[in-house]
Structure formats: structure tokens, C-alpha cells
Q: What sequence folds into this?
């Protein structure tokens, strides 16, 4: 049986004990120690045959083991906390499909680090999860075929929200302009060691065939719209239009936007249309 050596490794609980490892909250450490659970997360990324997986924050390696057991061609595991290098090296002793990188997942050039096709599968550190997501979505050319990422449930809901939902806002507009986003699994807090204060969820993101390219301008526009919730479009975009030297009423009319509508009811494509109608030379005149 090809994976028997992986399956004979100490359990993840034993691994923590053997290496005297305790979670460091400053690094957002909440571990998944049940291999059945990590395997069901890894299966969300199937098919994995011939696919190179980028895993950020492998920790003791529960998801790492699962990804290899579920058939990933290679796993590049990027871990910032050097205390986890010994247990990860232990896994690498019994499989030739794991590469370990000690460092910050935000700083790795993945297109350079491993060949396509690539998927990103990770139980992300909560404190930097959305920053990483937006960063990966912005990089061109796109280097990933799919993302399967664990977030706090509330963040997962914001990524996947539809117009009219309470959670709908800037994150939904940005993410859904690049990918098809769905919550594939909810994971209660008690299944983590130590349990975080809130439940989590795994979000699966498949790239759109035609993503919206100008995320920087979309970020700037949605910042203006959702910075002041419950205001009407006309009011939230007043300052933005002034900065850009745009005739607000004419611009909203051209994009077919009701000036009295609330931003939280406006579809993703309408925000994109508004960006497309900003005169080109002023589109990115200030930062997001
Ligand atoms: N994947 C493991 C699991 O499911 O048990 C651990 C998940 S834990 C939520 C997040 C992991 O990300 C920790 O191991 C932490 O050390 C690591 N980490 C935090 N910030 C990081 C960063 N910027 N780059 C890489 N790893 C990071």
C-alpha cells in the first residue's frame, strides 16, 4: 500500500506531545488533529492527481498528510513558526512529495516556487487570512487553479455573500470578481485544538473564465461605498466622484444605478460597470 508509511506516523496528538508543541495565539494557531476531518477538507480540492498544492501554515501537518494521502502530486508547505519544522521533516522522511519552506506565506512567489497546475489549500492563520486571499487574487497572471481555504465562519460568509445579505460588502465584491466562491464545509470551533472563540468554514474558490482585472480601482470604489453603510449610493460616492472629477449623477445614470439604492443591494457586476465608466486617467489616482 503506497501510503502505509504516512499512515504509520505518530498521530497528530502524539506529534504535539513528542515535539512539546503548544499553540501560539499570536500566530493564529488552532490545529486540526483529526485526520478524517483533514482528509475531508483535502477531498474538497479533488481532483489532486498531477496537482501541486501550496499549503500555508501546515503547523503539525494534519492537512499536509491528508493532501498527500488524497493524491497531491507535491505539497509545498510554508510555515513561519520554526518549532513545526521537525514534525514536518518527519513527514518528509516517509514521502518524497513534500517540500517544506520556512518563512512568511505572504512573501513567497509561488509561480516561481513550483510548476502549474497549482491549488492553494490551507487552514489559514486568521490574523492574515484575508490579506493573503486578496493578495493571491490580485497577482497576474493568475497562478492558482483553485483555492480551498479555511476562514472564520463570519469571514467565509462575507466572501460568499450575495447582494441583500447582511454580510455583503467589499470582500464579496472583490472575491466574486475573480472567482466563483462557495462555503463547502462548516467546521465547529470544538474540532480545533485549542478551540477558537468562533466557528470556521472552508471556502472553495474556482477562478472565473473572465475575471475583472482592475481590482485596485474596484477596491477603491467599494471602500468608498461600504465605508459608510446604510448610506445611499449618491451620498457614499459623493467624495469619490469629487476626487475623480466625475459628474456623479451622470456617472450613476450611465451605469444604470439608482442614486437612492444602498450599496449592500448593488450586484457585483454593477460595481465593475461603475469602475469601467470612470475615465481611465483618473481610475487609480489614489490608493485602495
Ligand atoms: N494547518 C494546521 C492545522 O490545520 O492544524 C495549522 C493551522 S493554524 C490555524 C495556522 C498556521 O499558520 C500555524 O501553524 C502558524 O504558525 C502558521 N502561520 C501564521 N502566520 C503565517 C505566515 N505569515 N506564513 C506562514 N505560516 C503562518
A:
Amino acid at each position: 500500500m503506497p501510503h502505509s508509511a504516512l499512515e504509520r506516523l505518530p498521530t497528530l496528538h502524539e506529534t504535539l506531545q513528542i515535539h512539546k508543541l503548544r499553540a501560539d495565539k499570536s500566530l493564529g494557531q488552532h490545529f486540526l488533529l483529526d485526520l478524517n476531518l483533514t482528509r475531508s477538507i483535502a477531498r474538497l480540492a479533488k481532483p489532486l492527481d498531477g496537482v501541486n498544492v501550496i499549503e500555508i501554515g501546515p503547523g503539525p501537518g494534519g492537512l499536509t498528510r491528508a493532501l498527500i494521502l488524497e493524491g497531491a502530486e507535491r505539497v509545498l508547505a510554508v510555515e513561519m513558526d520554526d518549532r513545526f519544522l521537525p514534525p514536518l521533516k518527519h513527514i518528509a522522511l516517509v514521502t518524497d512529495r513534500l517540500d517544506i519552506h520556512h518563512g512568511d506565506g505572504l512573501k513567497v512567489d509561488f509561480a516561481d516556487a513550483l510548476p502549474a497546475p497549482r491549488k492553494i489549500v490551507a487552514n489559514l492563520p486568521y490574523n492574515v487570512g484575508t490579506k493573503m486571499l486578496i493578495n493571491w487574487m490580485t497577482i497576474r497572471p493568475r497562478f492558482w487553479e483553485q483555492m480551498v481555504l479555511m476562514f472564520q465562519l463570519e469571514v467565509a460568509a462575507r466572501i460568499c455573500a450575495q447582494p441583500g445579505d447582511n454580510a455583503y460588502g467589499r470582500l464579496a465584491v472583490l472575491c466574486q470578481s475573480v472567482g466563483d466562491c462557495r462555503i463547502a464545509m462548516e467546521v465547529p470551533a470544538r474540532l480545533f485544538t485549542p478551540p477558537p472563540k468562533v466557528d470556521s468554514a472552508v471556502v472553495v474558490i474556482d477562478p472565473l473564465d473572465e475575471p475583472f482585472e482592475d481590482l485596485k480601482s474596484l477596491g477603491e470604489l467599494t471602500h468608498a461605498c461600504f465605508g459608510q453603510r446604510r448610506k445611499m449610493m449618491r451620498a457614499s460616492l459623493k467624495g469619490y466622484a469629487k476626487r475623480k472629477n466625475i459628474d456623479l449623477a451622470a456617472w450613476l445614470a450611465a451605469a444604470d444605478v439608482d442614486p437612492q439604492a444602498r450599496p449592500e443591494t448593488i450586484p457585483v457586476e454593477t460595481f465593475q460597470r461603475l469602475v469601467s465608466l470612470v475615465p481611465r486617467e483618473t481610475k487609480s489616482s489614489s490608493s485602495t
User: Anything to note?
Assistant: The chain has a mean pLDDT of 94. The chain has 14 helices and seven strands. Residues 151 and 283 are 31 Å apart (CA to CA). Residues 27-32, 56-59, 62-63, 78-81, 84, 104-106, 123, 125, 128 surround S-adenosylmethionine (CB under 6 Å).
